[in-house]
Amino acid sequence: MSEEMNLKKLFSLDGKIVVMTGAAGGIGAALSKGMAGIGATMCNCDVSEKGLKALSDSIEAEGGKCSSYLLDVTKKESIDAAVDAIIKEHGRIDVLVNVAGINKREGLLDVTEETYERIMDINLRGVFLVSQAVGKHMIKARKGSVINIGSHNATAMLGGCSVYGATKSGVVALTRSMAVEWAEWGVRANAVSPGHILTPLTQVTWDHPTRGDYLRDRIAMRRPGEPEEILGLVVLLASDASSYMTGANYVVDGGCLCGGMPWDFDSAYRNYED
């Protein structure tokens, strides 16, 4: 077998049924298109019917396979209805990618109870309920991979992200619980924590007169990440190449947590060009 065929077999998503929440958002859409492009059958779930239609059109235009389901992660009846419909149509779920999430940037003392509950409901409770509904089918099948999207803010905080950071820390902890409890049935669970990613929702931060420079100074690569740069790790965790990987949180942050930009240091090779 050729090297190319070996790689394709190892990392292939051909025939895998992938359920993704928050699929119509910036990160979700990039992941869904990318996974469909290498063989996955995408079951895209979101509250935006318009967003799902645009995503479906884009995937199908490139020859990918997908179906769309309206799903509100804050409502158990909506989750159950979507999961039941997916099982009825496809017979199983091989991979779950929990992407749905929101944030509202404001000081801890400014957060209202309504805002707190809304962010918690979508970011943490939603992951819990969707994973419960899908996990039952994976356990019956004795296989599956759950991929939860965490955040840089699960480890290092920015001002004005208290509730968001708390939910993402909870998502990472919940991921470890899934890994421990479901391993005996062949179900794996991992978290992917993006750093500072450029999306339509974060563009305002990167364009801000002080916040954009603040972030660049703290990222070793001196730039925001693109949603597509998360794809490789998600594909790895969805594929059979990660068959012994579970219970971990993998960071994709351009070198932010490791220390960001270094201070001025002496090196004979600092300006080495030959």
Written account of the structure:
With 274 residues, the chain is an alpha/beta fold. The protein has helices at 3-11, 26-37, 49-61, 76-90, 113-141, 162-182, 203-206, 211-217, 231-238; strands spanning 17-21, 41-46, 65-70, 95-98, 144-149, 187-194, 249-252. It has one domain (3-252): NAD(P)-binding Rossmann-like Domain (Rossmann fold, 3-Layer(aba) Sandwich), CATH 3.40.50.720. It is globular. The termini are far apart.
Rg, alpha carbons: 19 Å
Helix fraction by DSSP (H/I, runs of at least 4): 40-55%
Can you tell me the number of structural domains? Answer: 1
Cα end-to-end separation: 40 Å
| Major sheet attributes | 7 strands, parallel
Q: Name the CATH superfamily assignment.
A: NAD(P)-binding Rossmann-like Domain
Range of strand content: 5-15%
Number of helices: 9
H and E order = HEHEHEHEHEHEHHHE
Reading off the top of the CATH hierarchy, the class is best stated as Alpha Beta
Looking at CATH, which topology would you report? Rossmann fold
What is the gist of this entry?
The protein is α/β, with parallel strands linked by helices and 274 residues long.
